[in-house]
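Attaching the record inline, Q. Sequence:
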Amino acid sequence: MALLVHPLLVHFPIALWMTAALFDLLFLWRREQFFATTARYLVGLGLLGALASIVSGWRDLITQEMLGVGTALRKEHMPHQLLAYTATIAYLLVFLGRWRRPSPAGWTIILSLLGAVLIAVTGFVGVELRKVM
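Structure, as predicted:
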């Protein structure tokens, strides 16, 4: 059986983006610039982790298909993939919306919190994929 790298890497963007959402909430509560700046860096680092996760996810999927897992995995993978891409695009928009701005715009905080929900659902669906494998 091949080593699956994706399940090892996904924890980084999940943790970084969830922590960014927490810092966004702290910013709303305390209005201290430290929380906004930290959230911006966490979102950016999460994007780097997401890139590694997406590449490794495709690598693992192709490896599993070559081993004969078949179309069931591909079919089950599609919702997970779409959720992951949507969350990544949401956080890319958050990052771009906060680029070189001292305080986050309200829409970026809302999108960050929605992204946290999306990435949680994405992780749940990803765990369910293991049942097909």
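The helical segments are 6-9, 11-30, 33-66, 71-98, 106-132. DSSP finds five helices and no strands in the chain.

More tomorrow.
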